[in-house]
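User: My collaborator and I are trying to settle a disagreement about how two of our proteins should look. Neither of us wants to argue from intuition anymore, so we agreed to look at predicted structures for both before our next call. Could you fold the first one, then the second, and keep them clearly separated?

Assistant: That sounds like a sensible way to settle it. I'll keep them separate. The first protein:
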Amino acid sequence: MDLKTYLAEHFPNLTLEPPLFYNWDVAIRFELGIPLMFGINKEHYMERVYHRSLELFKALHDQEDEVLLITQAYFADKPKHKVKKLNLYRKYIKKKEPIRALRLEILPDLDCEPDETPDPRNNMYRYWTKCRIEDLKYRQLIKAICNHDVGIKPTIYHRVYFINISKKTIFHIYDDRGCDVISPSREALTDIYKEYNDWILDYDRERINNVFWDSAKY
């Protein structure tokens, strides 16, 4: 399955960049960690972040679901000949087939103005492959994503997106503070909106309620 074709069909005109929540109409932003708690008890803070991120992921994904695992990376500090396949795929995918099928698309300097010359150092490297949830060590993968900004290893520094082909959703943890989920249809996210309503980020709650209120009456 071609990534561009899939996105064009189900998520037309979507920019696969954070913040996904503000790039798409049918979207929910969940709070994972409370920043004030981090300075008080880092261990307790991360336990909450891991718990919420994993519960939300499991609520959106079944073991047999097919997903596109996408990683968007920048290598401005590395010479071109040293840019290689990410260890992320070898480390967190159990089967060899998805790793062998790994695709790479190099997107030139996305912030370049029309009258400017693109700087190769600002190229984005987009890796992706298709697999099933059961093929992923998703618990370890999600924890490593959440560790990005908190000084805990293992850590994944790149942006990681889970596109659920079976359910037509996109799941993205933007950092330890929160995650975004989007879909072409309200119905695909109604259950998670209802079940984890208390976890919705209050700052964006009004906007989210305006989208889901009619389809999620209790």
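The second protein, kept apart from the first:
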Amino acid sequence: MLSGIGTIVGAFAVIWAARLGSGTFESWREQKISERRIDQAERILIATYDARRSLGDLRHAAANLFAPGSAQRGLQDGAEALTSEAAKAHSYYETLRETASLARRSLADCLPTAKALFDADLEQAIGELMKQFDIVFADVGWRAELSPDERQAKWKKLTPGVPSEDRGTMDATIAAQVARIEGICLPQLRAAGRKRRDAGPSV
């Protein structure tokens, strides 16, 4: 009789230990995922803010290439050549283009974890922000094929402070994507801050 009771108690103990172990593992797993989300949220926000700043610098440099009378092509000895001012504008743009390419790459590196740890909306927002770099790169790449009127339109689009429907669209797009990214990532960091405060000082 006592042996039977001991067997039952032992079985319950094994079941309880298994359930306790399972719960501990799930708790540990959720904590690790939460920590990874916090780390990636911070990484994504840093890349986003860097991209926003880089886009502003890139657009300003690109606009200089389209500025009326300041970056036009001249003719020397029957061959097409850049004027001194245009050469400076082009060199400045190329320097910022390298920086912008790195900023775009940082965003691209965030895409896999954005979808895996968060959702498709974050992935789409990052992708749309990356696309703004491509638009500026393309505008500059095709500038030699543009008419004077088209160059003027590009200058208005890219120059900060110059009213332009296209420029307003790009500004709004950049701001909207940054807001989308912040809306997903910032709560992760704020929640982490609350947890640290609730835990109190370590002894």
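Some points you might bring to the call about the second protein. Helices lie at 2-66, 84-118, 120-141, 148-158, 165-199. The first strand starts at residue 73 and ends at 76.
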